[in-house]
Amino acid sequence: MSKIKSLFLLLVIPLFLSSGYLHEYYVSVTKIEFVKEEKSVQIITQIFIDDFETLIRERFDDRVTLGDENESLLVEEYMQRYLSDKLRVTLNGMPVEFNFIGKEYKDDIAYCYLEIENISEVKSIEVKNRVLFDVFTDQQNIIRLKINNKNKSFLLIPDNDNCLLNFN
């Protein structure tokens, strides 16, 4: 009987240690699309809720719980401030600011919706994405661009945090 208990413990304990707040990969996905008809660049940034919550607690307010029914009204402001600092877009050689439209939670991911308005054409786009690099050393950020009927993806890491796409 003790062999069965020992075997059970050997199999179950690792499951408890591997579950919880930590996960194996630290990754965000940012989709950027130029919508010519609307003269806008639309951005959706997807970040794991627990990772974003860790960041907001460290940087802004240690009492915040994302997705909670009593979530602080300041959460969107924290998200906007952080993303404005860590996600930079340059269009046609000029740095541009985005508007934070809002956020929503689906499953375990926070979706942040951003928009750059009054863009009639995109000749080049440069994206610098340092989201969560200051919290997780092994963070990776995927950039998926859909510009001028071209699709391109980039994987950004702390040592290589920007990408450039020219259409000339």
UniProtKB/TrEMBL annotation:
It holds the Pfam family DUF6702. This is Peptidase E. It comes from Winogradskyella vincentii.
